[in-house]
Amino acid sequence: MSKFRRLFLLLILLIVLLCIGCSSQPAEDSIGTSKPVDPAKPEPVPDPEPEVIPEPELPGAFFVMIDDHPQARPQLNLEKADIVYEIVCEGTYTRYLAGFYTIDPIKVGPIRSARYYFVQTVLPYDSLYIHVGGNMDAMDMIEDLGIKTMCDITNASGYYIRDKSRLMPHNSYITTESILKFAEKRKHSLEPLPELRVGELTDGRGITEIELIYGTEKHPHDIKWVYQPEEDRFLRYLNGEVFITASESNILADNIIIIEAPVKTVRVPVDGIQSEIDLIDSGRAVFLRNGKLYHGIWQKESAEQHFTYRLDDGRMWVYEEGNTWVQQVHSLTENSIISFIETQ
After folding, report:
1. 3-state secondary structure of 17
2. pLDDT in tens, 173-191
3. Burial of 20 by CB count in 10 Å (0-12 exposed, 13-18 middle, 19+ buried)?
4. Residue ranges of domains in the chain, CATH in brackets
């Protein structure tokens, strides 16, 4: 083999070796040169996103006296209330004092007349009380206590809407737009709802449902709250059927407070039969949240003060984040007016 030919073959071999060496180098990706990963060092976990609490849709709270007569059902947008006080009105019927703040109901009703124990309940909120008249005790108390009132009969008749498809007196409605216009005209400030004591609560008895009997066999009015584990809330039933509002929504509650306050039925001039309920008092209470039931007491020292709630062991009641339904019953005697089914 000639010298020239040997040199040529050596040159070819050198080129091949150089090509092999280049191909064994790590490839670069679109970002940069890859780095070896230490298997013993875990990837950093990003911090969780902070919970964003939505701002209230209303500039301040207002309270509406909502009818619960059978001819008033279904009620409009009751499910949007932050807090509802359900108290016996007359006979087997209850009435709702519904406070709105977080969600704008747009339009709400039917609206009915005031009772003095609802006036005592709304006073410490220092907010607008929306109603259609009231019995003599309630109207006198509204004036004496200086309640911010928006009444279809006395000072705000032009702001209400009458639904001609419904029978009077179960056909009076109000819109948020009208409420805000009235408040501005009368220079009534709308205060935010007070912050509640929110947090974890231990112990409690597991419960699947609780039933409250207001009616009779002839005039049934039975309320049931059934725990929904998937939502961690209680679903409201009326006379065995899921309670549906006029906006085709269910009513779900995060907190339920049931207070024992006996009802005395009396006959009075002008108004005829009416209920007397002493809420400036204290008594037994049952609390529900997160599928658990707790026993305790309620207390309201004066009309100017809010209800306070304590558990039997002396701890203050702690709320679950969300809405609250406060329900008055004549008695907390089990298997009579109230009954419940515990978790198996």
Report:
1. helix
2. 999 999 999 999 999 999 9
3. exposed
4. 62-186 (3.50.90.10), 205-342 (3.50.90.10)
